[in-house]
Specification:
CATH topology of the largest domain: D-Maltodextrin-Binding Protein, domain 2
Helix content: 40-55%
Strand content: 5-15%
Shape: globular
Bound molecules: alpha-D-glucopyranose
Radius of gyration: 25 Å
CATH class of the largest domain: Alpha Beta
Largest sheet: 6 strands, mixed
Distance between the termini: 74 Å
Number of strands: 14
Length: 442
Amino acid sequence: MVRLRSPSLIFVAFCLITLLAGCSRKDEKVVTFSVGGAPNELEFWEVLITQFEEQTGIKVDILRQPTDTDQRRQGLVISLKSKKSDPDVFLMDVAWIAQFAASNWLAGLDEKIWDSPQRDSTLTGRFHTPHFPPFFEKVVNLADRYRGTLIALPVYIDGGLLYYRKDLLEKYGIKSPPETWKELIEYSLRIQEDIRKTNPDFYGFVWQGAQYEGLVCNFLEFAVSNEGGINFEGDKILLNTSENIEAVKLMNELITKYKISPPSTFTEMKEEEVRAYFELGNALFERNWPYAWSLHQHQDSLVRDKVGIAKLPHFKSGKSVSTLGGWHIGISKYSDVKELSWEFVKFVTSYNTQKRLAMELGWNPGRVDVYGDRDVLRNLPHFAGLRNVFENAHPRPLLPYYTQISEVLQRYINAVFAGALSPEAALLAAEKEAQKIVERYK
Ligand code: GLC
């Protein structure tokens, strides 16, 4: 033990300790990761982060965000607009990556991804030519490159699915899930009428109709399955078409005419509200993303082992359509720890982490190689059959100003459900307003 006698020595020692403590605090580089989602998803991120910290010694702070995509985007926009160095890494909805890229808020990843040659164990001393990891190529080219530069990587791919109560369809002698919207209405009315005798809260079909991005995802599934959608003719946006009017009319009638969807559809129903409703055993059909599967199968779920998954129905003349959703990881251009952030991105997109995301959350990984994994296929048998649903899912327009167009559509379609406008008046007004946005960015 060193004994310090002179006061000046004690002073020097004190200064040294203070300095070292200061240094180590300053030198401890932390990656700040911003992510939202359902409560079980956030818990899962915490577990993953602990594992990453143990493996690498790099510290990650998590910034928890809500589930709603619009709120998540707004939170990030505030930090990025003010050029804050935190968060360093974040997940982005496929719907708004283009906006972030066009605003020049994302660090380029090309050099990083090509810069990790693997030593070939069979040919001593040789290196494999660096190769691009096996992500869904179509999705990467569509969403993760902006003007040729790679600015994000897909963590998971979403596509709208139809969940249905297998037990109830069987009980009422219905052999397979509905293929058309008309069949969905017929089955719902029949079964709902009977079950209502004992459960007045029971509805045929729950889906996302609240005024937010999810409503536009649902709208596209109705509209594109009727050969409509958000289309462009040169610089002219086409929303006010007979196909779209029919789609909005049908969505509205599910609530107001057939009453197979609850009135809360347009006031409250977002992903989590819809999932909870179905999970309480109060609905026959549910439109949701793949994440709902593992929660429906949870031991506390009232519908455990009673649920099937199918493609979404379509209009008589159209075909089934899933909106392409999903979340992608990127690094902020303003991050002051880009190298450490990249280590975290590599970890999140590695085979092992992607496999865990599939096994434990039921997410569809952004990496194609995980789909052939034996454990994944055993745990999630529906994966194999649904892979092409995700590969062919319908993207929202990948425009930097898409969220503004979406906001207009959300407002007008929701107003139809509220009884304030007819589908015709709503789409006419939405088209006029959206056209002004297009003109502004032309
Ligand atoms: C899901 C999808 C996302 C979509 C959102 C709408 O999170 O992955 O792409 O925008 O739902 O609520």
